[in-house]
Write a structure and sequence with these properties.
The protein is α+β, with helices and mostly antiparallel strands. About 50% of the residues lie in helices and about 5% in strands.
């Protein structure tokens, strides 16, 4: 029994609590109120008098010094100084001490004496009359003078001018005498002087630096987008500083802690306030840090533009939602919304579809909406969220490899002559292109017309080959984030050949005739033509007029024109592009400038108008600028056909550093550009022919430019001008690219100054609870419940989250869905087109509107009912026990309407399943059970259910008689109970705060309502592994109050020991011992306590989970109370029962989060084993209430998994607030809407997936960082979906079991080992069930097709194998190895048999019983013995990519099934070490966790 106690005198303060693992003691932190000590009057008077006296003495000394200075000044006016005495100053070291001594002691008196003596001699004329006898003795006269003027006896002697100078010389000379006070003082003064001068110089430098930095910040302020008043929100700048301070390279954590970020967008900064705010944090910054800060601010300014653009888009979609929500019900139909997105997607052009996300795929389609074969067996790469993504990415990788090979060859050709010979040789040996590869040929061709200048151009083209190759990769597909500035989001759209001009075909009605995406495709296809229309310096092409008009033009390559560089790239069909050589330089420069600009966002959709704007402003002189307007008009130049060279589809550019070019190559490029320009002029003027059938009118050109805003044209023209810088100039301005001046408009639209990023929920989120609570407040019938409802609302802290239901979207979910569909990089014109399309297409019938209104009314009614019944329950449960007696409820209900409805109410009991009665035959209803019971009773009564329920609630409320004291006690106890649950929700998945709040609630109630001093401890059941003969289970004390820590903490109670705790466990009901000294079965932990002191009461309460299973005991005693009679009262016992119930819920809340973390670690380990390096990191966040009441919820960073699969679990998880996520708001977008978010921040792309509660709200987030890749391959994308689905299913099972909604389902033997071990393998068990369900759907034909893969190497002729035979051989080996591995699971005896090496005999084991065996197989069974190494060799010899490319659904299923079985078997072998709680101990700052290595 516990003998602990608590000392506490003030509620709300952390109490004495001791925890287990490790033994952590929170010492007494009680703050007793002390009388304020008044200051004594005498002390104050003494201080005043002493201070006045000290000031007077100081002033007296100052006056004396001033008087002395004035006297010296007057004396100097009367007797000027004699500088002759300065000759005494000599710092010669040999005589320094002697000279200083003489000047100090003798000479000041001797020199005047000598002067007096000589004056006397002169007066007596002793020198002129030497023969005259005299009594004057100079020696005696000098001695008399010295004696009369002894400085020891004569004070304040008036000094002559010579003496004053000598005194000064003496003082100066003493400074040079070593080891003297004067010398030390002089050195100190000198050091002080030097330091002062140094400090002054430093201050001057600091002032200059500060002024320079202020000037730099002044210029940097103009980079930000400002509101109409020329100001910027302070919270934006604070977020920028917060991100910079968190950079580990600078170690500025202290600055980050000092930064107090604003809570709203209201505080704004003008230019001077902006400078002052930043200057206050950068005083001690070094130059490198300040430069880094400026660069960071420039990037943040760019990010802020993207934030404003996204906010504009979200406001546009929010207004669309309000427009479509005709009935103002607050939600829209999900299926209709997805159907409209699919229609818009299908009717869009191919280029635009390359930007949009496919609405038929995840995350638009939920996992539950897909069949198992479709989810697990779909290997069609065309179903990627980005159209043709895999194909484009593979092409780009091939292109880059060819580019690298071409560069290597160009380096080997050192001289231009060798290179020219090499090109000539390639031209002469180039084979004729097959017809299907000649994209630009027509059926009839004209003779070649090649000018002399064209031939010269052909010889110069080899010098441009490297430049061309560098630009090809950048023009070929959409790029992910750039290399130098990660936040750049350039998206280069897929360019495809079309057989007809691109018009408004496929665009939904109401959208502009041609979107910007289509313009981009058209212009790229025109510019990139590799036929006779090309006019670049590196290609000897010409313009021909085909005799028969068609979609393509005549190919100059087929006519025999010399294109050396084109030949290197291959035929038209093989080359990814057929670009213009001269304009390639300009195009490459423009692409390079885009890369260097870094954080500037955009897409080819926004870049497309750049080609027109550059022409209009006349800033470029390349062939691109000369040809583009001619091709645009179609009147002056040739016709507009389809693209003749197949452009690579949208893909992801792999970042590659640009190599520096030497001066020779730069000069060669410049000359090539000049020559190519002249050649283009000649070619374009001499060989231009216009087929009349392909001429385009000005109206068509105008329709192409509908989506081009003036602002975009300004930006594009600037980009064109800057793209023609030389390589040297580019390097010089490279650092300033991101900080160049930008327009204050976004795509021609000014910012209104309103930003809803921080208060999106405040404006648009709709909280039905608050609306219904306000309506109840206005109803006088429920006045007694108003205060209780207010408390309930204040305790509801996780507000603003939307629940996903699969049927409808609320505003937040609708906006997020559309934002995910259009993407972040698409221009606003696409969103405007989508908005107009929705306004026309979203039409509801009258019946649907009425149905929506009825559903909204029902939702509001349910919320109102829940609030009323919950408040009624709390009023009834005045002791806070957490349950009500059914018998008491029925007795009161049967009196409703004087018993007239008694029979109807009894019918309600037929439709509800009550909990099992307690041992005393008492049926207790929890709050949820009480609400359900009352609703069933109301449904049996006549009348409108809402009115009847309100009448019943009013009747019960008035029938309950509660005194004011009981109401106050109930309010206080509900608050303490809420603190326990809040501690669990804000603990960061730790039980320590839960223990603290539990003991605090017990002690506070005992002092406030029982006048007792109690001790308490918590003991949990554990399996007895060490001493099983003393019982199968034991009770371990895991936490207790402070005073009994040495006696109780970590102690174990066995069944064969004295005590009543095991009786409580067995019977499941509380036991109260009023006087422990008279009870013979009480175990006292404190042996030192005397028997006479063992007086008090003891109460043991069972701790039960949602399934009424007992997992521990809560014990409370009064042994430390000084009163002899201190029995627990009934209302105290009931409250302690409520504490036990709330603690149980809080305990399992923490455990459920811990199990979820365990599941996530297992799932990530599985994913990393099959995906090598595509994922950079996966971060797991949990949602928690805010630190303050009524504050927004926060996110806790629980763990981070790096690219190596090693998971770092934080002991004290960092907290992320919404106000710090202006630039990284994708996490809160995900949690607010409970939808998947695809985002790109700082050059890294994120797939943010919510972990949902069973109610549909987000409980956490998985942030999958895929680095600079635009998207994963479809195989990796599908594997990621599989991991997420299995994790969500496993989480739902864990949450359902812990809440009591579903019963525990043990499928595998390993699940019976324990809860923690079960959580560690639950991921694989769920995946195993999914795969078994897929295998059941296979037919015998699927397996028969596998048996046809037979291979006998001896039967084949010995001929060199080609690629097809190698591929066939690899496929045969793959099929046979996987099937052999499957056979070994069920026939392990074959490992030593020759049958395993004979494929014909192995076929016999693949029969109709195989699928049944697979579906019933338990890889964790105890009697199962298989050779894991042999199976691992069969499975591990084939990669995930190899299985995917094989493309057989049966092999796909079997591969995953074998992988999961191997993982479970390995975990079963390491059950105690591999499956452990994922949380670190409290003595560690973090820990690393990783699941067992690859199973295959």
């Amino acid at each position: 029994m516990s003998t602990c106690s608590i000392k506490d005198s003030k509620p709300g303060v952390s109490k004495n609590t001791v925890f287990r693992k490790p033994a952590k003691v929170i010492f007494n932190l009680d703050q007793t109120t002390q009388d304020s000590k008044l200051e004594q009057p005498w002390k104050k008077n003494l201080f005043e008098r002493v201070q006045a006296r000290a000031q007077a003495m100081q002033q007296k000394i100052i006056d004396k010094e001033n008087l002395k200075k004035e006297l010296e000044k007057k004396t100097e006016e009367k007797l000027p100084k004699d500088n002759l005495a300065k000759e005494w100053f000599n710092t010669e070291t040999m005589t320094l001490n002697t000279r200083a001594y003489l000047l100090d002691k003798l000479l000041p008196t001797l020199v005047p004496g000598m002067e007096k003596m000589l004056m006397q001699v002169e007066k007596k004329k002793l020198l002129t009359e030497a023969d005259i006898p005299t009594k004057f003795d100079p020696i005696n006269h000098l001695g008399e003078y010295l004696m009369r003027n002894n400085p020891n006896y004569i004070k304040d002697v008036e000094l002559s001018g010579y003496q004053r100078v000598m005194r000064d010389v003496t003082e100066d000379l003493k400074m040079y005498v070593p080891n003297t006070i004067y010398n030390r003082v002089s050195k100190m003064k000198e050091n002080i002087k030097q330091k002062r001068e140094q400090r002054e110089s430093i201050n001057e430098v600091k002032v200059k630096v500060a002024n320079t930095r202020k000037h730099a910040l002044l210029e940097q302020f103009n980079e930000w987008i400002l509101d109409p008043k020329g100001m910027i929100p302070m919270i934006v700048i604070q977020n920028a500083l917060h991100e910079f301070f968190q950079n580990p390279d600078f170690q500025l954590e202290t600055c980050c802690q000092q930064l107090d970020i604003a809570n709203s967008m209201e505080p704004r900064l003008n230019k001077m306030e902006f400078i002052e705010l930043i200057s206050s944090y950068i005083t001690d910054f070094k130059s490198e840090m300040f430069e880094g800060l400026l660069k960071h601010l420039c990037h943040c300014a760019d990010e802020f533009r993207a934030v404003i653009k996204a906010d504009m888009r979200r406001q546009m979609f929010a207004e669309l939602f309000l427009y479509c929500d005709h009935g103002k019900v607050g939600f829209l139909d999900r299926q209709r919304t997805l159907a409209l997105l699919e229609t818009f997607y299908d009717q869009s052009s191919k280029v635009l579809r390359g930007v949009l996300r496919n609405p038929r795929q995840w995350p638009f389609v939920e996992f539950g909406e897909q069949d198992l074969p479709e989810f697990w067996g779909d290997m069609d790469n065309q179903k990627h969220i980005y159209e043709d993504f895999d194909k484009v990415l593979l092409k780009m990788n091939t292109l880059l490899s060819e580019k690298q090979a071409s560069k290597t060859k160009s380096k080997l050709l050192a001289s231009p002559e060798d290179q020219y010979k090499h090109d000539e040789h390639r031209k002469s040996t180039r084979p004729q292109s097959p017809p299907e590869q000649q994209r630009g040929t027509t059926e009839e061709q004209e003779p070649n017309r090649i000018s002399t200048k064209e031939l010269e151009q052909d010889r110069e083209s080899t010098g441009e080959q490297e430049l061309y190759e560098e630009s090809v990769a950048e023009r070929g597909g959409y790029t992910g984030p750039t290399t130098e500035q990660g936040s750049s989001r350039e998206l280069i759209i897929e360019q495809r050949p079309y057989s007809e001009p691109i018009t408004n075909q496929g665009v939904p009605q109401g959208i502009h005739t041609e979107s910007t995406a289509e313009q981009a495709l058209y212009r790229e296809s025109i510019i990139a033509q590799g036929e006779h229309e090309e006019s670049t310096a590196g290609q000897g092409s010409y313009r021909g007029s085909p005799k028969k008009q068609g979609p393509h033009r005549q190919s100059s390559a087929e006519q025999g024109s010399h294109r050396g560089s084109t030949a290197e790239e291959g035929s038209h069909g093989e080359s990814v592009l057929e670009p213009r050589r001269g304009s390639v330089l300009e195009e490459g420069a423009r692409r390079e400038s885009v890369v260097e600009q870094g954080p500037r966002r955009g897409s080819i959709l926004e870049e497309a108008p750049r080609r027109e704007s550059g022409v209009e402003q006349g800033t470029q002189g390349g062939s691109f600028l000369e040809e583009a307007p001619r091709r645009e008009s179609g009147v002056e130049q040739g016709p507009h056909g389809g693209s003749t060279a197949e452009q690579p589809p949208p893909t992801e550019t792999i970042p590659e550093k640009q190599k520096d070019k030497d001066l020779t190559s730069q000069s060669r490029k410049g000359s090539i550009l000049r020559e190519s320009k002249k050649s283009r002029e000649v070619i374009s003027s001499e060989y231009s022919e216009i087929p009349p059938q392909e001429e385009r009118t000005l109206e068509e050109i105008y329709e192409e430019q509908l989506f081009i805003s003036s602002e975009l044209q300004e930006k594009i023209s600037v980009s064109h001008r800057k793209s023609h810088l030389s390589e040297t100039a580019k390097k010089e301005v490279q650092k300033d690219k991101s900080c160049e001046h930008k327009s204050q408009k976004i795509e021609g639209k000014s910012w209104s100054g309103e930003l809803l990023t921080c208060n999106w929920n405040t404006k648009y989120a709709r909280c039905e609870d608050e609306e219904q609570a306000n309506s109840i407040y206005g109803n006088s019938r429920f006045t007694d419940l108003h205060s209780i409802i207010r408390n309930i609302q204040s305790y509801t802290e996780l507000k603003g989250r939307s629940a996903f239901n699969g049927v409808s979207f609320n505003l937040l979910q609708f906006v997020q869905l559309l934002e995910t569909f259009v993407g972040e990089d698409s221009p606003l014109s696409v969103s405007e087109a989508l908005t107009s399309f929705f306004k026309r297409g979203f039409v509801e019938t009258k019946e649907e509107k009425m149905s929506g209104l009825e559903e909204a009314k029902q939702n509001a009614s349910q919320v109102r009912r829940r609030l009323l019944l919950k408040a009624l329950f709390q009023k009834w449960d005045s002791d806070g026990s957490g349950f009500l007696d059914l018998k008491e409820i029925d007795e009161l209900l049967y009196t409703y309407k004087e018993g007239m409805e008694k029979e109807s109410m009894k019918k309600a009991k037929l439709h509800i399943q009550f909990p099992k009665p307690h041992p005393d035959h008492e049926v207790r209803l929890s709050s949820k059970q009480f609400q359900k019971y009352i609703e069933l009773v109301v449904s049996e009564l006549r009348g409108n259910e809402d009115h009847v329920l309100e009448n019943v609630v009013e009747f019960l409320m008035s029938a309950l008689e509660r005194s004011h004291v009981e109401s106050l006690r109930n309010c206080a106890r509900q608050k303490w109970l809420h603190q326990i649950q809040r501690a669990a929700e804000t603990s960061g998945v730790s039980l320590d705060p839960v223990y603290t709040e539990t003991f605090k609630a017990l002690t506070q109630d005992s002092k406030a309502h029982g006048n007792k001093k109690i001790s308490a401890h918590i003991s949990l059941l554990e399996e007895n592994l060490l001493l099983p003969d003393r019982g199968n289970v034991l009770l371990r004390n895991v936490a207790c109050t402070l005073d009994d820590a040495p006696f109780v903490l970590n102690r174990v109670l066995y069944r064969d020991m004295k005590g009543i705790s095991f009786t409580v466990v067995d019977e499941g009901k509380p036991i109260h011992v009023p006087q422990v000294q008279h009870h013979g079965n009480i175990y006292f932990w404190n042996y030192s306590r005397k028997k006479n002191d063992q007086n008090g009461s003891f109460l043991a309460l069972p701790l039960q989970d949602a399934s009424m299973r007992i997992f521990g005991v809560l014990a409370v005693d009064t042994l430390r109370d000084p009163q002899k009679i201190n029995i627990f009262l009934p209302h105290e016992i009931r409250f302690y029962q409520g504490v036990a119930n709330v603690f149980s819920a809080a305990y399992h809340y923490v455990r459920s989060r811990e199990h979820i973390l365990h599941i996530i670690i297992t799932g990530i380990g599985w994913l990393y084993n099959i995906i090598t390096s595509s994922i950079t990191a996966i971060t797991t966040y949990f949602i928690e209430p805010g630190l303050e009441q009524d504050s927004d919820y926060v996110l806790r960073n629980m763990m981070v998994t790096g690219h190596l699969g090693l998971t770092e679990i934080h002991k004290n998880p960092p907290t992320i607030f919404r106000k710090t996520c202006i630039f990284r708001d994708f996490l809160y977008k995900c949690t607010d809407s409970s939808e998947v978010v695809l985002a790109s921040v700082c050059g890294e792309n994120h797939i943010v997936v919510p972990l949902r509660e069973r109610t549909g709200e987000a409980l956490g987030v998985l942030d999958v960082n895929i680095g600079r890749s635009k998207m994963l391959f479809y195989r990796e994308f599908k594997d990621l979906q599989k991991m997420i689905k299995v994790i969500q299913v496993a989480c739902n099972e864990i949450l359902g079991e812990l809440s009591g909604e579903i019963k525990k389902n043990y499928i595998l033997e390993i699940e019976n080992v324990g809860e923690v071990q079960r959580a560690g393998i639950l991921f694989f068990r769920v995946m195993l069930q999914e795969l078994q369900g897929c295998l059941r759907l296979l037919t015998s034909v699927d397996f028969v097709s596998l048996l046809l893969y037979d291979y006998n190497p001896l039967a084949e002729p010995k001929s060199p194998p080609d690629s097809k035979s190698k591929e066939l051989e690899a496929n045969i080996k793959l099929v046979q190895d996987i099937l052999k591995a499957i056979i070994l699971f069920f026939h392990p005896e074959l490992e030593l048999s020759s049958d395993l090496r004979n494929w014909d005999k192995c076929k016999l084991y693949i029969n109709r019983y195989l699928v049944e065996n697979i579906c019933d197989f338990d890889p964790t069974a105890r009697n199962l013995k298989v050779n894991l190494k042999l199976i691992d060799d069969y499975i591990g010899g084939h990669s995930r990519t190899e299985v995917w490319e094989f493309g057989n659904i049966a092999i796909e299923y079997l591969y995953h099934w074998a992988y999961v079985c191997l993982a479970l078997m390995k975990l079963n072998q390491k059950i105690n070490s591999a499956i452990s709680p994922p949380l670190p101990s409290k003595t560690d700052s973090y820990m690393y966790a990783k699941m067992p290595g690859k199973a295959c």
